[in-house]
Amino acid sequence: MTTAKMHRERISEIISPLTGPVSLPLSSLLEAPRRLTADVESPIDVPGFDNSSMDGYALAAATVEEMRQRPILVCGRVAAGSRGETVQPGTAVEIMTGAPLPQGTDMVVKIEDTSPGRFGAESITLDAHAEPRPGAFVRPRGSDVSAGQTVLSAGTMLTPAHLGVAAACGVNELPVLGLPRVLVVSTGDEIAAEAAAGINDANSVTLSSGLRRLGVDTEVAFVPDDPQQLLDRVRDSDAQLVISTGGISKGAHEVVKLAADLDADSSMTFEPIAMQPGGPQGCGRLADHAWVALPGNPVSTLISFELFIRPALLGLADHEAPREVAHHRLAHGFDEAPPAGKLQVRRARLTEAGLEFVGDSRSHLLHSYAEASHLVFVSPEEAGTGDPFSAVGDRLMTWKIA
Question: How many CB atoms lie within 10 A of CB 77?
Answer without folding.
Answer: 15
